[in-house]
Amino acid sequence: MSLSNIKVVLVGPLYGGNVGSICRAMANTGLSNLTLVAPALTLNYAEARMMAVAADSILEGRKEVSTLEEAVGDCGLVMGTTARLGLYRQHARTPREWAPRILESAAANQVALVFGRENWGLTNEEIAICTNMIQIPSSEEYPSLNLAQAGMVCFYELFVAAGVFEAVGEKTPECPTRTREHMFTMWREMLLAIGFMDEEKADHMMLGLRRIFCRAPLTEDDVRILMGVARQTMWKARQETRT
Amino acid sequence: MSLSNIKVVLVGPLYGGNVGSICRAMANTGLSNLTLVAPALTLNYAEARMMAVAADSILEGRKEVSTLEEAVGDCGLVMGTTARLGLYRQHARTPREWAPRILESAAANQVALVFGRENWGLTNEEIAICTNMIQIPSSEEYPSLNLAQAGMVCFYELFVAAGVFEAVGEKTPECPTRTREHMFTMWREMLLAIGFMDEEKADHMMLGLRRIFCRAPLTEDDVRILMGVARQTMWKARQETRT
Predict the structure, then answer these.
(1) DSSP B116
(2) Closest CA to B53 of A137, A25, A83
(3) What's the pLDDT tens digit per position in B85-103?
(4) Same domain for B88 and B149?
(5) Which residues on chain A are in Cβ contact (under 8 Å) with B170?
(6) I want to staple A21 with a disulfide (CB 3.0 to 4.6 A). Which of A54, A139, A148, B102 is the partner?
(7) What is the pLDDT of residues A215-234, one digit of tens each?
(8) Interface contact A28-B138, CB threshold 8 A
(9) Could you tell me if A220 and A179 are in contact, meaning their C-beta atoms sit under 8 angstroms apart?
(10) What range defines the domain where residue B61 resides?
(11) pLDDT in the model for residue A238
(12) Which residue of B51, B152, B164 is in closest CB contact with A153?
């Protein structure tokens, strides 16, 4: 499985909260391999554990090395991330554009996703080691993402591209016309029975109702509920007439 | 512009750090309208300001109300978010699937993105007020995202779908064959001149070099650099021969 060949490399992280949030985001998206390059001596590991929540095993299992070269020595693709553009960064592409290439490489090779310091990003020397650069789409007015948020977006794009996640979707199929028309017939009778419309206006009003109910797909469950409403209303209307 | 009609609604947030991170993520993705529904009395606003960084104007400009109904009273679409699936949540779709629908609606209407409490999400009563539900793709083993991370993913998907962001891309066009072939001719001469290969092996070796240089697109700038290398090497090789 490709995702297990992807390692997350944080260069010189300063804040424990960010490191912990990265761990949780990794667990949320099927990643588990974390390397810290020369983390700040003041990095608060208690805060990291707090933000990692149930992903503390990723935090505890982290590797620590002193240079980026050591961290990515075994990797083919080395994807740097950048908020700024400029020298050495102009060939950056978005995480969505890179995701298929990263997964293709990770099917057979170690791949690194490299994130720079909170206050300074990656140095030009560190960018030189990266084979390619990722730029996360963001507003021109405030382009700089929090470290853990930048991680989340990249991991999320890889997770979605990996196709592991399957949306639940509707459990019942869309209702076929035969049943839907039966429901509309019942509603027509019901709306006449309660005096909501008279025979003359009925066709016009039913077109309005058809528009409401057919604007989005109707499932068999939906139509069963609508039939139940009509059936019960008719029953109640008959009761009222009798009393 | 659609994004300005989208309001972010946090129901009962507990932690200032998350509220601040949400503000920064909003600023990163062109959103600015924040409403808090009954925030925790213990919510740490100093922490919120710290995490909002340059997005403190969104934090200061927030509205506070006591119920979700008040918060979304003026909205057409009310999109709830959920990590769990189950009762009332089975019709959830991913943020990427919803993004076009949300932007279409936000072109002419107020739209709400609703996020539940950190520890408990949204109640069934709150979910009932939502017109639709968003589920963020995440690992089965740890599906629950941090509040601000869930926000980031939703905002990011809307920002990308809005098409505001334009990738920088290459500044020079891809190199046309004529120029590229000229470069290969120079390299052939150069590699013969330095004795890297002899005439007999040259064609075979050049196929290897063509494969390396053509594996990814070559721009005119790239080819100019490669021509420069060949030219300088030939010059140096000639100097050496003379001495």
Answers:
(1) -
(2) A83
(3) 666 666 789 999 999 999 9
(4) yes
(5) 90-91
(6) A148
(7) 888 889 899 999 999 999 99
(8) yes
(9) yes
(10) 2-162
(11) 87
(12) B152
